[in-house]
Amino acid sequence: MTQQAHYDRIADVFVRNLDEPHTEEYSALFDRLLLEAIPDGPLGYIGEICCGRGEALRLLGNRPELEVTGGIGIDISSAMLDAARLHHPDDRFVFVQGDATDLPLADEVLDHVFVLGGIHHVNDRATMFAEIHRVLKPGGCFFWREPLNDFFLWRWLRAIVYRLSPTLDGDTEHPLHTMQTRQQLAGAGLDLVHWRTCGGIGYCLFMNSDVLVVNRLLRHLPGIRRIARAAVSLDERLLRLPWLRHTGLQVVGAARKPVRASSDP
Ligand SMILES: C[S@@+](CC[C@H](N)C(=O)[O-])C[C@H]1O[C@@H](n2cnc3c(N)ncnc32)[C@H](O)[C@@H]1O
């Protein structure tokens, strides 16, 4: 499979990027927005699909108030799963190789599902969403954070960067569009309950060190953590302006699998 070979090849670069100081600072924004999307109550047994190193399991598992009892990370790439196992000494979590369009799970076994940066790699989204619906318990939620291509400027920029960077694959990676994603979720029987765009200029500069050498070099800049935090704050302020609200580079969202009516079989 193209994605499997691709991530087996770039796993080292991808994982190293996650530990860059400016990536950590900018990622804290995404973590915060994901946590804000999660309603109160115990999370129970969770799944992270396209888990890579298992960033969602790490974030959620470290928060006792979220009451994560255990979880499974699923990814197509064995190199990414090796990184996940190294990164997670926590024995509540297991990591299994599998395809997002054919999940190695029984029906209705997960309380909630998380995907961070994985949906845009899966071209058959109808099947992926149907699989997530199948493995979720009724009432459970599917949470994601993904690149968004609604705004023309980012769409053009991405088209160029996807062609130039050896760590991206422009033929198989397709960021989300709002209307299309809404329809695909509805088609899989999932009710959209949360949709918040985020990420602007700061995201371009301080994320993507796996993609752009120039971003990687920023680690040598004195005070880089402070600068990255200032960029987060600027991006957040800009995206609060009414005419910029829909121009985020990323979207944090959630969709719920409806609880069956008592008359359903
Ligand atoms: C951009 S990385 C995100 C990794 C991780 N979620 C994170 O936030 O760091 C995308 C991940 O999706 C995985 N992936 C791509 N296509 C997949 C598929 N069809 N099924 C399962 N995993 C897949 C890749 O191997 C890779 O680990």
Overview of the molecule:
This protein has ten helices and seven strands. With about 260 residues, it is an alpha/beta fold. The chain has a single domain, classed as Vaccinia Virus protein VP39 (Rossmann fold, 3-Layer(aba) Sandwich), CATH 3.40.50.150. The chain has a seven-stranded mixed β-sheet with strand order 3-2-1-4-5-7-6, sandwiched between helices. Helix 5 links the parallel strand 4 and strand 5. The N and C termini lie far apart (about 40 Å). Bound molecules: S-adenosylmethionine (SAM). The site of S-adenosylmethionine has 19 residues, from helix 1.
CATH topology: Rossmann fold
Any idea how many domains?
Answer: 1
In round numbers, the mean pLDDT is 91
**What is the CATH domain class?**
Alpha Beta
The unique ligands bound to this protein are: S-adenosylmethionine
What does the largest sheet look like?
7 strands, mixed
Output the structural class: alpha/beta
Shape: globular
Tell me what portion of residues adopts beta-strand conformation: 15-25%
Number of strands: 7
Uncertain segments are none
Gyration radius from CA atoms, angstroms: 18 Å
